[in-house]
Write a structure and sequence with these properties.
By secondary structure, this protein is mainly α. The chain has 2 domains: 1-30, no CATH class; 40-107. The protein has helices at 43-66, 76-107. The chain crosses the membrane at residues 43-66, 78-104.
């Protein structure tokens, strides 16, 4: 069954679609009752970047400790794991900053 609306205001099934079309003939999409409000652009990037910035160094230290760095005299494994955690955490800070800028600009337009 073809449900493409024609210009007469009904679709192929006989349902009235005048109110569902805008001036260009495209379907208008309304808000659904009870649906959550959409978030501003950059919100999720800020949240996820903040979590990465907080958790990555801790997970790096935990990974270094779990890899047996305490038994190594130089502690090189712990340093490598911690450095990787700090780099990932730094990328998280960068993502959080870029997300916050997008969020700020989206809210103030």
């Amino acid at each position: 069954m073809d449900v493409t609306p024609d210009r007469t205001g009904t679709d192929a099934g006989g349902l009235a679609v005048d109110d569902d079309l805008d001036a260009g003939g495209r379907a208008r999409v309304g808000r659904v009752e009870g649906a959550p409000e959409p978030v501003q652009p950059g919100f999720w990037m800020t949240v996820l970047g903040s979590f990465a910035a907080i958790l990555a160094p801790l997970i790096g230290f935990l990974g270094g400790s779990a890899s047996g760095a305490g038994y190594d005299q130089t502690g090189r494994r712990l340093a490598v794991w911690l450095m990787v955690g700090l780099v990932v955490g730094g990328l998280g800070v960068l993502c959080a900053f870029v997300g916050a800028v997008r969020w700020w600009r989206g809210a103030h337009r």
